[in-house]
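Input sequence (384 aa), recorded before submission:
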Amino acid sequence: MDTQRRNLAKLFSLGTIFPGQAAYSLNSILESIDMDSNEELTDQLVKNLGEKGIEKLYKNAIVNDGLIISRNWNQDSFKALAESGYTGFNASVDSGNLEKGLKNLHNWQTIIKENPDRLILGTSADDYNRAKKEGKVVVMLGFQNSTMLGRSIKNLDKLYEAGMRWMQLTYNQRNYLGDGSTERTNCGLSDFGIEVVNRMNELGIMIDLSHCGEQTTNDGIAFSKSPVSINHSMCEALHKNHPRSKTDEQIKAMADKGGIIGIICLGYMIGPNLGTDTTLETYVDHIDHAVKIGGIDHVGLASDFAIQGLEATGATRENWYVPRLTRFKPSYKVQWPPWIPELDKPDRYLQVAKILDKRGYSTGDIEKILGQNWLRFYKETLKP
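Predicted structure, token format:
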């Protein structure tokens, strides 16, 4: 019964954070319940108040998604965004060459300008506090590849001026900067890659290492003077021999320099046998492990699919799974269906917050994982 009393006390302590929520008197409820004879009732009360507390926390928190696939944005996307509780997200803009990259940045700038009541272009951490206050959502524009640069460092400045604030150094394959995660070799950053890293630091562009090869990841952390992000990945310790996972050594090195890892929601990245061995609980296992290795201040969340979720955007075995069997190497271990059901919907992070609460995370630590860690990272990497 002492545990139940402590749980109740924890729930009512939320009233100090959310004053309007303390509508009940802890003492009167405790006195009205015979803990020994009404154990089932007490358990239900704890559960109900806990859910309300987390829902209130989530509503008041800054919630940020480390990676949303943003192509084909439409009214369904806006509807899902309204249901998500998001304060902001990193939008993955289609890359290609410089002309295509600039065009796609311009297209997203247009969407933001045409929806000033709903969206804010993200260029600083302050944008997120303003968005929360005004009931809007921040869109931070960036790319999952650096092919737009070609061989010219000057193109980085052009992309920055067009609104880009984060860039992944490589995708799965090798480019002029270095080797990707599924490249046969493991050569790390090229001289040009190190030049690009230095210029990104100078401009205040976030460096992302999510799809980078092992040595490219190590080099990105080592050569960057600013903290780096691994904005949508997972823990190799829990999903071994996957080219997209990051080792404990990499997570620790990233965290030691002030970086952040966003744990990816894409189900087949989290573990095998989706729906049986791999569930929402497995997803939170990755958060637990990343926190254990890197610390509570260096872990966030990331989807790696559209805001609506994969199923809602029409992903089928034929149009989603089959093409990836040839697009990705077998080491990618693509599964069908690829999603964890609770994460394949707009309120995915509310579901994550509930599990974190059940696992004993404090309200402050839950808020860090939901978004405050991203804000801390943005403050240390972006420049006014």
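Checked by second reader. The longest helix spans residues 39-60.
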